[in-house]
Design a protein that fits this description.
This protein is of the alpha/beta class. Helices cover about 35% and strands about 20% of the residues. It has 9 helices and 14 strands. Strands 1-6-7-8-5-4-3-2 form an 8-stranded mixed β-sheet. A 6-stranded mixed β-sheet has the order 10-9-11-14-13-12. Strand 6 and strand 7 form a beta hairpin. The N and C termini lie far apart (about 55 Å).
Length: about 350
Amino acid sequence: MRIKAVHLVLFTLVLAVLLAGCTAQTGEKNSGVTENHSVNGTGADSGSTIKSGESEKKSTVHAGSDDSKTSDVYYNIRIVPAFELEKLQKEMGPDEYLVKNDKDYVLGIVSSKGLILRGDLMQVERETGTSGKEFDKEDVVLHLLDITFGLDNSKIKLFKSDKKYQFWLDGYYTDSEISYVKNLSTLFNSLSGTTEFEDEEVTLGFLQSNYEVVPYNYYNIKIITDKMLQQYYDDKKKDSDHLIKNKNGVLIGIVNDDYVYLVNTLSEEEQRYYILKGLLYSMGLHGVSYKNKDSFFYRNEGMNRELSELDKEAMKILYGGGLKTGDTLETARKTFGLST
């Protein structure tokens, strides 16, 4: 069972609990006495009491209309890091259900005994919500042309659309990478009208290549040691491979049409950035934006770690069916009615 959450309700709930907890802690510091603070309910005779100080990351709500006649009943509200929520999902009981937003991102776990929420709700809101900003179609198209055609890309090369893609992780991957690429699948599918990624499962480890019928177009993300990456570069590098180097010019990854290889010495934040960067390159986005400062593709590499709303609108056009592999810049401009 999946529960679609309304963002405003969740944020209001969290803020109310945190505010009550802060008030209680202030009272304790000033008077040295633990106080109970009532929060008005929806009915005339209903109420709730919030206690603080039991845990840094846990607030407990004590419900009851008559404290003298009712035994203590607590409803736990916990705020945890995203990685801890991922672990708790694997340990869910029959009475627990996922809380998701309208983009199908997991926000928490709810049961009859409590609610667990991820601590980065605001970040998830920014990533999955919509800004409400409207863009002029010509601005979107011009941005698309900027971020598609680069020095090494005179023709568009898109993912295939004959069957689904699936992420394939091997090497030194972790649960964090698995969760991240699943989210990338969901994001990509929300932007593409042609190609689609499997968003429920990720292929892991060794992949046999002797299938009679290969079920997916696989996109391989290989996390390997510096030595293994260098060995691949020395022995197997293709002319079409694109090299990823850090600011010091050191090789940290290799990208092509259907794979990205990265060293396992990157931080989690850097690893996610380069996985996304490699995926976008494989999708056909090889260019740079010189004027849109909030774009992922802005000329100052790494300044933005997430796709902007303008980036997303451009990707919708790129994978909307109007463009095809082999189209040149001139062809693309004609397609959109622009002067060539």
